[in-house]
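Review session, final week

We close the course with one last complete record, chosen because it touches almost every idea we covered. It is Major facilitator superfamily (MFS) profile domain-containing protein, a protein from Fusarium oxysporum f. sp. raphani 54005 with 504 residues. Go through it on your own first, then we will talk.
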Amino acid sequence: MAFGVLESNASEQPAGTVFLEDSQDGMHTILVPSPSNSPNDPLNMSRIRKELYFLTLLFGACVTGALGPVLVPAFGIVSQTFQTPLSNVALLNGSLILGLGVSSYFSAIISDLWGRRIIFVLTSILLVVSNIWAAVSQGYESLLAARVFQGLAMGPCFSLAGTSCVNDVFFLHQRGRRVGLWNFAVIVSVNIAPVISGYLIVDMGWRWAFWFLAVAFAVGLIMVVFFLPETKWDRDEVISGGNEKTDEKVAVETAPDVESVTPWKKICGVQHLQFASAKELLPSLVSPILMLRHPVVIWGCIMWSITFTWVIVLGTVADQIFGAPPYSLDPTQVGLVIGIAPLVGSALGTLISGWMSDLAAHYMSAFNGGLYEPEFRLVVIVPSAITMTVGAFGLGDAIDHARPTMVCCVFLALINFGVGAGCTGIVTYTNDVCMDRAGSAFGLAMLIKSSFAFGLTFMLNNYYATKGPMVFFSTWGGLTLGICLTTVPLYVFGKRIRSWMGRY
């Protein structure tokens, strides 16, 4: 038993358990998965190509993260513009969230069949078009439809970027920091978007927010074309660890095999892409749902739904809280409150948890004879659960007693610190357990989360208005704590569960 993780009764190590540290000298990290000798293997990409690739993923995460809450400071203005109730305006976010869930589910499936690059190119084009559509929309129904298509185009930047795309290019011991940075890009952009859009909306109108986003997505499309090659690579998964070591400062050197690659494939970045047959599509559409037989996938779906939905909850009621007495803030000020404090909390949460996740994996593996268990990643859930719970109850009390805005900001920062840390822990753990199925697992989690959040948009504003801030935030805080506590038995019995379920 390593650090409370119970050993399995099986003779073989379950999926996810690998030798990460050289138990002989403890100074070198074993490369997992083991890279091949092919020059087309994404693991063998040069350092600069990997960084440009990852920068493209981060830029996409930033812009798509900003797209969701871009209208948050202007809910009241949009309501007046189209003469529609506030609950209908909230549906503009809800429809995008639902579209995002559907897109996340199908993006992971299609990318496994036909590659990552084609999905990113097509959805990047759709993001440019749908933002122009939103900017020129003349009615509520038109804007609502544009938001649906925006959500449908956002999926790859969520279900693939932090899971399959990271796993394709980076080794296991590098993924915690990369996932942390990806979470940082998503959550920080979600929080900073209302600040920027608040100023834009006051000075130029809400339509200009979509014009600026259209330009940003056009830049993202150019980056995808030039810096995001096809990274889908069929390899035999190395379960017990590879036999190559790295000193972290030394680049991986391989002896590439000579392979015949046509020039157009090199230009398009698809030199090793192989398309699956159409008859494989239907079974692939169903296979992610079958992953719900795995307790780890169920845990990941529920945890992601509760944790990330905090961002949506706060954005939905922000104008209702701070735009009304006793605060009576204008859209710019609402954007600052719901943007700056959560920005600080999210930044610290994602960056610290990503570093902490890799550090825990490194040292706990070293003290475990070099054997790495994915459950070591779950230690970051502890600070996440504490800060989200304290922040939720504290924020409810602060608003209920009309405490100064700065006090509310402190609790908003605590909540978002927990959200950032929790999301990093969830993604890194499911990545290491599900391995090549991580994209499908996360796509399923996004679909469930989005359906859950979509349903909430119909009742959040009314629930807050009827129950008040204390009951509203205490309800969500209690639910968050209860779900986070399920991580304890998962940590203890996780290895046995993985052994019992086998690999999907």
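Two points worth writing down before the exam:
DSSP finds 17 helices and four strands in the chain.
Strands lie at 18-19, 29-30, 245-246, 371-372.
Good luck, everyone.
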